[in-house]
C-alpha cells in the first residue's frame, strides 16, 4: 500500500526544510512527522534528510522521491478539495495579497463571484517584498506575483501578462526634447522605488545599459500615482498597458519611442499546503478561470 500520509509529510518537510515547521503546517506533532520520515526511510532503505542545527537538507534520494510523487500528490489533494467544496460549501475566509493596481483592474469580478459563493475575503495590497513575506509567514492563501516563486513550498500558474510602456506628458517631452526612450533615460524618472524595477526592464529590453540611469525624480509605491504625476508633467515613467490606456487615448500621456514593449508576466501563487482547504482551492480556480477569459490583461497598445 502506498503510504500517502507519510509521503505528504515528507513533501512538506522538503519544502519547508524543517520537520517542526512541516508538522505545524500539517497540524500534527513533531514526533509524528519524524515517525513518518523514518517509515519512508525504512521502506526505501536510504536516508531522505541530513539533520543540522537549522533544520534538514534533502538527500539525492529525497530529491528523486519528490520529483516522482510531488506533482501527483498535489494534484490529488487539489482535486479532493474541489470535491469537498461541492459537498460542504466554501464558506470561510480566504486571504489574498497582490499589487494594488492589478487587483483593482482585473480581480474585482472574480472577487465578487467569490463573495457571492460564501467566501469572506481579506485583501492586502503591496509590492513584491510584502507579498512574498506574507506567503512565507502564512499570512496569505493566494497572491499575485510578478515572478514565478523559487520556494518549493509555493505553487504558481501564469495567469496574465502586462506590457510595459515608457510614457510622458506631451508638455514634458516638448520641454526636454525627449521624444524617445533613448533621450528620456538621461532624465530622472518617476519610479515605484529607488531600485527602478519596471524602468530597468524597459531600458534593458531597448538595449540600453540599465545601470546608467539617474536617481528618480520621485518614488511612490502605487503606479496609479506615478501615472497622475506623469500626466502633470513631473517626469517620465513606465506603466502597465492597462494603466496607461485611457491617458494615451485622451492625449494626456504619449508613448516614448522605443522598440516593442517588453512583457511582464504575472502569476497566481499559493502555498501548496493551502490547497488542502476547499475554499482556497475554489478561490484559486475562480481567479484563474475568470482571468483566462479577460483579454485586457494580455492586450498590447
UniProtKB/TrEMBL annotation:
GO molecular function: DNA-binding transcription factor activity; transcription cis-regulatory region binding
Source domain of life: Bacteria
UniProt keyword list: DNA-binding, Transcription, Transcription regulation
Domain HTH lysR-type stretches: 7-59
This protein's record includes keyword Ligase: no
Record SUPFAM superfamilies: Periplasmic binding protein-like II (SSF53850), Winged helix' DNA-binding domain (SSF46785)
InterPro entries to which the protein is assigned, alphabetical: LysR_HTH_N, LysR_subst-bd, WH-like_DNA-bd_sf, WH_DNA-bd_sf
Pfam family membership, one: HTH_1
Keyword Transcription regulation on entry: yes
PANTHER family: HTH-TYPE TRANSCRIPTIONAL REGULATOR (PTHR30126), HTH-TYPE TRANSCRIPTIONAL REGULATOR CYSL (PTHR30126:SF39)
Sequence similarity: Belongs to the LysR transcriptional regulatory family.
Protein name: LysR family transcriptional regulator
Amino acid at each position: 500500500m502506498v503510504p500517502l500520509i507519510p509521503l505528504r509529510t515528507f513533501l512538506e518537510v522538503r519544502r519547508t526544510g524543517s520537520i517542526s515547521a512541516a508538522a505545524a503546517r500539517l497540524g500534527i506533532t513533531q514526533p509524528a512527522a519524524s515517525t513518518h520520515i523514518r517509515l519512508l526511510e525504512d521502506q526505501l532503505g536510504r536516508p531522505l534528510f541530513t539533520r543540522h542545527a537549522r533544520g534538514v537538507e534533502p538527500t539525492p534520494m529525497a530529491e528523486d522521491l519528490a520529483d516522482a510523487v510531488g506533482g501527483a500528490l498535489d494534484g490529488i489533494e487539489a482535486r479532493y478539495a474541489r470535491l469537498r467544496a461541492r459537498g460542504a460549501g466554501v464558506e470561510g475566509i480566504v486571504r489574498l495579497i497582490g499589487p494594488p493596481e492589478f487587483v483593482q483592474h482585473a480581480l474585482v469580478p472574480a472577487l465578487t463571484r467569490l463573495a457571492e459563493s460564501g467566501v469572506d475575503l481579506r485583501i492586502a495590497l503591496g509590492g513584491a517584498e510584502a507579498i512574498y513575506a506574507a506567503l512565507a509567514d502564512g499570512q496569505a492563501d493566494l497572491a499575485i506575483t510578478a515572478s514565478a516563486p523559487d520556494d518549493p513550498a509555493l505553487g504558481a500558474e501564469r495567469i496574465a501578462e502586462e506590457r510595459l510602456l515608457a510614457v510622458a506628458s506631451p508638455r514634458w517631452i516638448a520641454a526636454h526634447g525627449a521624444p524617445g526612450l533613448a533621450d528620456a533615460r538621461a532624465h530622472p524618472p518617476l519610479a515605484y522605488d529607488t531600485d527602478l524595477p519596471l524602468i530597468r526592464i524597459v531600458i534593458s529590453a531597448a538595449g540600453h545599459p540599465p545601470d546608467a540611469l539617474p536617481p528618480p525624480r520621485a518614488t511612490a509605491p502605487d503606479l496609479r500615482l506615478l501615472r497622475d504625476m506623469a500626466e502633470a508633467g513631473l517626469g517620465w515613467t513606465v506603466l502597465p498597458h492597462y494603466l496607461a490606456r485611457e491617458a494615451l487615448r485622451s492625449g494626456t500621456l504619449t508613448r516614448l519611442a522605443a522598440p516593442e514593449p517588453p512583457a511582464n508576466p504575472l502569476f497566481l501563487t499559493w502555498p501548496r499546503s493551502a490547497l488542502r482547504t476547499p475554499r482556497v482551492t475554489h478561490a484559486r480556480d475562480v481567479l484563474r478561470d475568470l482571468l483566462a477569459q479577460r483579454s485586457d490583461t494580455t492586450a498590447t497598445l
